[in-house]
Each structure stands twice: as C-alpha cells, then as structure tokens.
Amino acid sequence: MVNIKNMDFAYKKTKLFSNLSLELKPGNIYGLLGKNGAGKTSLLKIISGLLFPNTGKIEVNNFIPKQRNPEFLQDIFFLPEEYYLPGLKAIDFKKVYAPFYTNFDNVRFMELLEEFKLPMDQKLNSFSYGQKKKFLISFGIACNSRIFLLDEPTNGLDIPSKTQFRRIIASAGTENRLIIISTHQVRDMENLIDPIIIVDEGKVIFNEYVEQVTNKLTVKKLTEEPAKDTVLYLEKEIDGYKAVMANTDQDQIDIDFETLFNTVISNPSGVKSVFNGGTNNENN
Q1: Is 120 helix (H, G, I), strand (E, B) or coil?
Q2: Is the distance from CB of 199 to CB of 49 less than 8 angstroms?
Q3: Which residues contact residue 92 at a Cβ distance below 8 angstroms, ignoring those fewer than 6 apart?
Q4: Exposed/middle/buried for 44, CB within 10 Å: 0-12, 13-18, 19+?
Q5: Does residue 226 have a cis peptide bond before it, meaning omega lies within 30 degrees of 0?
Q6: Per-residue model confidence as pLDDT tens digits over 180-216
Q7: Is position 221 within any domain?
Q8: How many structural domains does the chain have?
Q9: Which domain holds residue 254?
Q10: Residues 112 and 229 in one domain
Q11: Total-model pTM
Q12: Residue 199, number of CB atoms within 10 A of its CB
C-alpha cells in the first residue's frame, strides 16, 4: 500500500532522509516515533504528496503521490498537527468537503460528532483547539479512505477524549485500511499502535510488531547496577535500576513504549543484533 525505496529528501541544504526504504501494509495501525526533527511530519507529508522526495521511489496505492491524482487524493486523509478550520458549521463543512471522498459515511460522521459532544450550531473557527481536533478526527474517519495519517492526534485532547480516541481509532482499523499515527505522546498510544516504527538520523532504525518486541526484549527491576555488557538500556530509579535485556528466558513481560523508544534510540546496534538473532548488548 505504501512502498518507499532508496528515498532521499532534504530541505534546501539540510538532508533529512538518506536512502530510506519502508514498506507499509494495510490492516495495521503503525506508530511513527522519533525525536524532535527526526522527520516524522515530513514523512507523512511525502506519503500524502505535500512534499516531494529528491531521489528514490515512492508509491501509495499504486499512485505516485506528487502527481496528486484525484483517485489518489480521495483515498487518503491527512490530519496535520496544525490546521485551519473555516467559519462554517459542521454540516456546511461536510457539504463542501465530503463530496471529494466518494466513500464518505454521513451516518458515521454524525455518530462521531455526537459521541464527542460537538456543538452543531457553532462555527468551527470558534471551537476550542481540542474540539477542532475531535471534529477533524470525526471527519477523517467518516471519509473511509484506505490511508489515514494522523500527526500528534492526541495533542489538545483531555483524558476522557483520549480514551474515546483510542477506542474510535481501534474500531476504524480494518484489514483494508492503513493508519499511521505520528506521536510524542507514546503513553497515549499503548495498546493501540502496532507495529512500531522509529526513525532517527534520516533512517528507519526500528520496525517491529509488539509481539516480536515482547518475544525479544524484557524489562527487569534490579537493586544493584548490572554490568553494562549485560543490558541494552539502563535507567536509574529511586529504588534501584530498570534494565532492558535480551529476552533469553522468554519472560512474558511487556515493555512500555517510552522505555522501548529510549532503548532503541540509545542503543540501536544492540537492539538490531537481538532482533537479528544475536545477543550483542553493546551500548553506544
């Protein structure tokens, strides 16, 4: 559904991606993680045809995104972190923009507006930031596009709304739809995103399903500081240490996404070795 091969991308003289390759398949809710400036938003824009790669190849649903083919555009919805909403009521917005999406589900749209308790008689540009976000999430899901891209979707949402968001997105995931969520709020995405993609320094350094993470890595609480060559990642805590290790004993212990991210970023070569069948715990 999304196929990127040997892609380079730069902003003027600043190179962001170098020889990046990535294949994304339908039926998944991918989590796209990375440090500030790693290129998460830029990658979503490239997939949606808003930015163009310098070299390499990218195909989305068998289309080249930069050509902005109408059939391509009606089957992809991108919810950016920053956006503008016009001075229209929800129903008027739908009348203007829904016709661009041939599979738009009006019944689902109205259900989501009601679930998020959004005022129907109020203009969208007078909504709070969180209300605007919930409106666009509702509209994006109702578009029924096969590709749904979300950039920091839980920013601006309160705790009950985040719970609603997770449930709604989980129900929107189908075998024919590909959802990509770029986020810093990894704790908001626990039990939702799978697989997990981590980008750093212009490359994809991690792309694994949660089941594989559980099989390959384990977290242990230790009272004494372990030898560095026995751990992939070590974090000092009040009552001791939290250590990430290769799961040689096949312990069924879930690793939280924040700890996983810190482990991969701090020790990519060690993590890669474990997932490739080795036990090299060399810390960088």
Answers
A1: coil
A2: no
A3: none
A4: buried
A5: no
A6: 999 888 888 888 899 999 999 888 999 999 999 989 9
A7: yes
A8: 2
A9: 209-275
A10: no
A11: 0.91
A12: 24
Q: Are 186 and 226 in contact (CB under 8 A)?
A: no
Structure-block tokens of residue 172:
């929107």
In a domain, 284, yes or no: no
Same domain for 150 and 246, yes or no, is no
Among 207, 228, 243, give the residue marking a domain's end.
207
pLDDT (tens, 9 = 90+) of the chain, 284 residues, equals 899 999 999 988 788 999 999 999 999 999 999 998 889 999 999 999 999 999 999 999 999 999 999 999 999 999 998 888 999 999 999 999 999 999 999 999 999 999 999 999 999 999 999 999 999 999 999 999 999 999 999 888 889 889 999 999 998 888 899 999 998 888 888 888 999 999 998 889 999 999 999 899 999 999 888 888 889 999 988 889 999 999 888 776 778 899 999 999 999 999 999 998 754 444 43
Let me know whether 69 and 159 are in one domain.
Answer: yes
For the stretch 28-56, pLDDT in tens is 999 999 998 889 999 999 999 999 999 99
Residues 34, 101, single domain; the answer is yes
218, 255 in Cβ contact below 8 A? yes
205-213, long-range: CB within 8 Å, 24+ apart, which pairs?
Answer: 205/264, 205/265, 205/268, 205/272, 206/264, 206/268, 206/271, 207/22, 208/275, 212/275, 213/255, 213/260
What are 58's two structure tokens? 């990218």
- For 45, 99, 207, the CA distances from 199, given in Å and listed in that order, are 15, 35, 9
The reply to whether 202 and 88 lie within a common domain is yes
32 shares a domain with 64: yes
Q: What is the CATH number of the domain that holds 135?
A: 3.40.50.300
- Judgement on whether residues 214 and 203 belong to the same structural domain of the protein: no
* Residue 217 and residue 133 share a domain: no
The verdict on residue 283 lying in a domain is no
